[in-house]
Amino acid sequence: MRTSEKSVSFTSEELRARSAAGLSTSNWEWVRTHEPDLTDPDAPDFSEEMRAERLRRRGRPKGSGVKSATSIRIDKDVLAAFRATGRGWQTRMNDALRAWIEDKKAPRRKTRDASEARERAAPKALARR
User: Are 1 and 9 contacting, i.e. CB atoms less than 8 angstroms apart?
Assistant: First the structure.
């Protein structure tokens, strides 16, 4: 048993022995029958605003679900230039890549037509031999 100015602590074995001997000082019957009074007249009302603040998620926000993590090799000077712009550098890099894609967008050639043309030309080439 250890004691300090205001509290006494027992090991689990000591507690079991005291309980078996009927030496428990806790009035468990009173504890079970009395509800604690949780109202404090000096406490402010728990408003909807406070409730919303309490329920607000902490930590990193969830992603939009439209981006994917990848590993890419970028020249050190290019990476340093984007990082030097501060927070949000990855978003700015994404925007720069998107602008490049929009600038370079051209009508796509139909690759199926090219492969069909090659297939049609192959029998003719074999026939000439």
Answer: yes
